[in-house]
Automatic annotation (TrEMBL):
GO terms for cellular component: trans-Golgi network. This is TPPC9 protein. Residues 16-125 form the Trs120/TRAPPC9 fourth Ig-like domain. InterPro entries: Ig_TRAPPC9_Trs120_4th (IPR058568), Trs120_TRAPPC9 (IPR013935). The lineage of its organism: Eukaryota, Metazoa, Chordata, Craniata, Vertebrata.
Length: 130
């Protein structure tokens, strides 16, 4: 589950926020398997989609993370959750997307080396209301 500014997100929802206001992020990983999973690294990568096949990931002047964009998950037991909190700060207006990737950090190789777990989150940064 992904929450942006307290709102549940999926691929059909555009979350609107204001430039200059920190936007809280919450990612919850639920283990529905019968076995413990992990360790993982959870990485959030913002980008802009130019709608022509080009994704711009060079956004250090437009977006900053409050805290880290990578979180390390040791082990998630069966039917348990692991929740991670962070925040984004948008410096310019525009439509942005957030890729959330899990990277396996375990030598057993039960999962591919790197896999995209969730669809991209669409965030629209707008001018602050005066």
């Amino acid at each position: 589950d992904i929450l942006v500014d307290g709102k549940v997100c999926d691929c059909d929802i555009v979350v609107t926020c204001q430039v200059g206001d920190p936007v809280p992020l919450q990612v919850k990983l639920t283990n529905w398997s019968k076995h413990s999973v992990g360790p993982f690294a959870l990485t959030m990568m913002p980008y802009q989609d130019y709608q022509n096949g080009v994704h711009n990931y060079d956004l250090q002047d437009a977006i900053t993370f409050v805290g880290s964009n990578t979180f390390y998950i040791d082990t998630v037991k069966p039917t348990k959750d692991s929740v991670y909190f962070g925040a984004l700060l948008f410096l310019y207006t525009g439509d942005f997307y957030l890729n959330i990737k899990f990277h396996e950090d375990n030598c057993s190789r039960e999962l591919p080396m790197s896999w995209l777990c969730l669809p991209s989150v669409h965030i629209r940064a707008t001018e602050p209301v005066a």
